[in-house]
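SAMPLE LOG
Freezer: B-3
Tube label: C17
Construct: single chain, 291 aa
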Amino acid sequence: MGSSTPGGFNGYIGAGQSFMVNMLETTPSNNTAGPATENVLFTNAMRNVVNDNSQFFRTSEEPGEKHKIWLNLYSANYDIMNTILVGYASEATMQKDRLFDAVTPADKTKIYSLIDEEFFIIQGRALPFTTDDRIPLGLNVESAGNFYIALADVEGLFEATTQKIYLKDNLLGLTYNLSEAPYEFTSALGQFNDRFELVFRNESLSVNDPVLSNNALSVINLPEGSVKFKVEGQHLISKVEIIDLLGRVLYQLEGSHKEEIYFLPQLNQSAYIAKVTLSNGQILVKKAIKN
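STRUCTURE (predicted):
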């Protein structure tokens, strides 16, 4: 399949062709006495490009179809934590393949892909490629903080600008276009195997209603620890989740109006993320500060 880092390995290892030497022995038919033991000597003088090698069992093969995506996990200072490879190959399957997949331990801060809850630094997937495919990504964090997930390199069909590569953040309900820029996020300490997915189409674009931007959501601080949430347009607020910058859900609140007021004493003058689900299923996200 290749290396987990772009350009590190082209997928082929040079190997020597093995062969056997038959020694003559004494038989009734040839009446020839062969030596009991003998040394066979090969030298570079015997090597020549004009020699006929057609009798060897295996000759060169053309590489199969392959399409690859490399992802980097960066720290807040843009230090690379690790790189993973996800690709599609003509002989790979959606399950664990001995020749295509490479497992990795979750022994430090790193990103990885998953197959049946097992962690992979390299994962090969079956062809043909379809934009409905979803690749679960896991994250192990040794120290809470800010991170980036970015495209390191691509090959094959992903080099075409028409095929976008998206990162879905299930915690925040966001689908982000990695083809445009790295995705910045904050994570708490721990292992998270259901937060991120690699997807190939923006599912929010399939909503029949006009897609509202996050600017359609207003978050207004009120006296005595209350906060007002207001959304523009015809749809109502059906659910509000308040998430701190470490990714912990502090509040899960129900709604039924265009404006909702909630008492949120736990915020206590801190930054947080408001994830608001509308009555049509659309999700708006806004970062705010409790005064």
